[in-house]
């Protein structure tokens, strides 16, 4: 693989020598490393404003200042993927700058060979760049890579600065709003709200968790139970975890949740909510973007926001 050196040039590294336990899938093409290059694709979102300009020039002493339009002006967001190895992500048959869509649908307009998106964010414009649009763009990027760069291993880097990047599926594992006991009846059952594309909402069960022994844990009583279909409640859920090997305190002696979930710093077993929040399956819950990319064989990670030392796109 290639790496940046301190003087800003690229050098080729023997990947096998670097990571002897992971020599990769073997010789590929003319790659001298006998492994697969790891290519980093960073998601770059930039917003440009109509009045965002800076002029520096000599002026005559008799000239007066001419005021510019106030405010930042209309914005245009450009979202793309860029790599130190290949530059902007483009297919090998050339690329066409895409047209801007004038609606707020989840469809993102990318040309066949470019993952670049131009977006006029705002009310009465293109709407807002939602998680669905990010997923659509990532899908298109992976289509291009699958087609034209199949001989490399690819890693996507996104920023965790926006909920649009880190959103989880509606039925994702989350200890928030869980009730400590089962509800009285189905009308007050603990469920997750799913908002469909046509803005209608429906309620679904939270997806199953996983015990420490690897078996799955449903958070709802089975059909054979007198409270069939009802949420088990946090205390019952924790007791099940204990019976499957977790070393946790007796939940009947604990509060449902510390006041406003402001537990003492470092506390992990102070209340039922904090215990469930810290269970490995809840901690490992992935975002929709991670699930999408990994389902297609791509690795993905999140940068801390605007970090100029770990991300080259912040060094401009
Ligand atoms: Zn607590």
What does this structure look like?
By secondary structure, the chain is an alpha+beta fold. The relative contact order is 0.12. The strands form four sheets. Strands 3, 4, 5, 6, 7 and 12 form a six-stranded mixed β-sheet that branches. Strands 1-2 form a two-stranded antiparallel ribbon. Residues 20-33 and 95-106 have low confidence and may be disordered. The chain folds into two domains: 37-52 and 70-167 and 287-314, Nucleotidyltransferase, domain 5 (2-Layer Sandwich), CATH 3.30.420; 186-283, no CATH class. Helix 2 (131-148) runs parallel beside helix 7. The longest helix has 18 residues, at 131-148. The protein is globular, with a radius of gyration of 25 Å. Helices cover 17% and strands 18% of the residues. Residues 258, 263, 267, 270-271, 274 line the site of zinc ion.
Could you name the CATH topology of the largest domain? Nucleotidyltransferase, domain 5
What is the CA-based Rg, rounded? 25 Å
Oligomer: single chain
Order of helices and strands: EEHEEEEHEHEEEEHHHHE
Give the number of helices.
7
CATH class of the largest domain: Alpha Beta
User: In CATH terms, what is the architecture of the largest domain?
Assistant: 2-Layer Sandwich
Determine the strand fraction and express it as a percent band. Answer: 15-25%
Quote the distance from N terminus to C terminus: 24 Å
Number of strand segments: 12
Q: What is the 3D shape?
A: globular
Short description:
This protein is α+β, with helices and mostly antiparallel strands.
Task: Note the main attributes of this structure.
316 residues; alpha+beta; Nucleotidyltransferase, domain 5; 2 domains; two-stranded antiparallel ribbon; 7 helices; 18% strand; binds zinc ion
